Predict the 3D structure of the following.
Amino acid sequence: MAIASIEVSLLEAGYLNSAIFQQKLATPMSPFPEFAARRSVWMWPPQKVITRITDTQGRVGISMTNGGAVVATIIRDQFARLLTGRDETKIDENWELAFRSILPFDRSGFAMMAVSAVDIALWDLRAKREGRDIAEMVGGRRAVALPAYTTTLAPERYATSPFFGIKIPMVAGPSDGETGVAENVDIIRRAREAAGPDRDVMLDAFMGWDVDYTLRMVEALAPYRVRWFEDPLPPTDIGAYVRLKREAGNAITLALGNFCFSLWDCRALIEVGVVSILQPDIAWCGGVTEALRIDQDARKAGLPIIFHNTSEQPWALSLSQALDTVKEVEYVDRDPGSMLHEMFQGSTGVIDGMVRTGKTVGNVLSQRVSDALVKF
């Protein structure tokens, strides 16, 4: 059983048209006025990358990640020529080959999204070959359903929902001064009112703050009992996280890892003791293979994992059901008319605030979506 071909397509799913990308939010680009108004004017290539690996028996493994033509180029021009003809069952070995082949030019970001794409497709191929899903392949399903929180800019929409918590993208950062502080406080106040006294409120600063501003927000938001602060600082500045945690102490809980692109990125946060909740994205951090390694480190450190954007990644849902480090999942509030909403939000099985495994990627690629794919 060998890899016969690796093909890549691009899907314009309206990613940058959603509300979260069309309004002013805190980002690393906030200090630059021409890019501060909305994420859509500077974010990565918006197309989803669909990877198909076909084996010599005609089976097809499918994955999806971000990065558009940048990631697709790495898969097509680097990985396809190196992996075609290799034993499809040696997933760890194929992961190592792909990773080593990118060392001369990258070890993170887009390159690891490409590694993730190939790895997830190989796991999907294995699932089809064995007639089992990922949860069954890694030890069995320990939970059929997992409690979910929602990430949204409209907290009032979830005032009566059964989700255990509401997470809010922050609207302002240091360059917005005291007006921005007030705007952040206002939306967290609204989230707390919507959540009531017994549910959680969290925030995501999307790497848009610095240490002093984060400490200011810790103080300003104290009355609203924010459960965690997610990615407030640039992920490369480990020293800043150490200072933040030292000065804020137990007043802040840090959920980090969305922008950890490997086990080593996660390990750096674990070793300095700044992270309380790990949130890697399986489609960015090296795929299922690397996620299982991250799980081992989290397990040793006694840290819980919540896979980023769980509800839109069938492999993340399945793996979450199998790993006892995962107790909760994320559900992203997409615009009802978006293709991503059509693909995933209606298929994940959200019942009473619990998310159940939804469709596989192959099943999700409906005729409408298939017609929108552009071969790269």
User: Anything to note?
Assistant: The longest strand covers residues 3-11.
